[in-house]
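>> Question from a student workshop board

For tomorrow's exercise we were told to take the sequence and the ligand below, predict the bound structure, and bring the output to class. My setup keeps failing. Could a helper post the expected result so I can at least see what it should look like? The ligand is FE2/S2 (inorganic) cluster.
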Amino acid sequence: MKVKTKLNNKPVVFDIEPGEYLLDTLRKHPVTSVKRGCDAASCGVCTVLINNEPMLSCSLLTARTEGKEITTVEGIQDAIRTFYDYFGDEGADQCGFCNPALALTVYAMKHELTNPTLEEVREYLVGNLCRCSGYEAQYRAIYKYLGDQS
Amino acid sequence: MNIEKLYRASSCEDALKTLKEDPKNVIVGGGTWLKLTGREIKTAILLDDLSLDTISTSDDVITIGAMTPLHKIEQQDELRTMYDGLFDKTLKQVMGVGLRNMATIGGTIAGRYGFSDIITSLLAMDARVVFYQKGEMQLETFLKTRGKLDDLLISVKIPRREGRGFFKKVATTQLDFAQLNLAITKSNEATYIVIGSRPGIAQNASKAARFVVEQKHLDDSVIKVATDIALNEVTLSSNNKASSSYRERLARTYIERGLKAVFNDES
Ligand SMILES: Cc1cc2nc3c(=O)[nH]c(=O)nc-3n(C[C@H](O)[C@H](O)[C@H](O)COP(=O)(O)OP(=O)(O)OC[C@H]3O[C@@H](n4cnc5c(N)ncnc54)[C@H](O)[C@@H]3O)c2cc1C
Ligand code: FES
Ligand code: FES
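>> Workshop helper replied:
Here is what the output should look like for this input. Compare the format with yours to find the bug.
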């Protein structure tokens, strides 16, 4: 079946199986920044934005993106370049596997929450697991980034 | 899940008709739980075009459409603050925003999950559910039904009440299912003590709540008797998350804290 959407601001038509999930479709297109961790809606590394809202592409049927806008980290390069500098400054990067999903979630949070507290930031990012960093450096980087941007 | 065919229903009637055509046809809410079950599905029925994702308010109830994602409910002002923010606290403890932007309130209720935190709080808010065919009923009545749900859930209704509330989820990590969850509410209309993830589905400790309401003061001895009554009417069992005796310790601790929080203004 055919599904018409926009991927990173460009119109695309996906030719998919009915039970196909967005993560698999994106890999064919070929977006490799979107990772597969648990494949069970639990780790967050497959996060993409659908109409600017974070969703888990491993569990989202591609057919449901008809007429919607899909954003992956390739589509927000300008917006996140500064964000990555803050990550570098705090040493919040290790293997980087979780970074694209985290960047997209922070991007959505920045648009959704006004002057969030550190607690609210933590709460928003709770579904984005990272196996390397221990989170503290990430939170420091994100909180500073948001503070400087506001 | 393995899906043979996807079908976008054009009306509730159309969705229900398609559901009844084959036992392997299913309604898809957010699809998050269905994916985990890996079920073989003949026709997956999408409700995306039926405008069931809105929240509306009348004089006495807030109506949440079945397809409303959980995160959208967190953004509704009244629901966010009602019963000391009980529902908001509950929703925010269900995974992350990514999941809550997909999982729907309809899929949450229709699933009748034993571990559900959300069902516990909905019971404590005296929620009612509206089905396309069976019509409106108390959530509690629906939860007692068994077997395949051969109906379409349209909405959930929450009475607009002023009151106090307490919610507690105990889990080994923030993203895990609860070993026990508990919601207590008190309004002019009613008092509820609800225990969930027992590990069976959430249950009202209605005799305990009635006992509490009949007392003039809430002191330690009243709380002790109320807790004993609650643990007599609500069964706690063991599973791989917790033993029944551990669940009992948790229930005793948090019923006491919860009652004090909503009746005495202490937490
Ligand atoms: C990884 C993971 C962790 C979770 N952790 C928690 C937790 O800690 N606490 C908690 O409370 N919840 C938790 N949940 C459950 C979550 O909150 C949702 O309730 C659940 O995922 C179902 O939402 P859904 O809309 O995606 O349902 P779906 O997967 O779409 O559907 C679930 C069931 O409901 C049926 N259904 C859906 N909508 C309707 C309708 N309108 N009418 C009739 N039938 C319908 C479907 O046919 C299916 O049988 C978790 C879920 C996942 C996937
Ligand atoms: S791959 Fe883990 S949430 Fe999707
Ligand atoms: S940096 Fe390795 S998973 Fe987060």
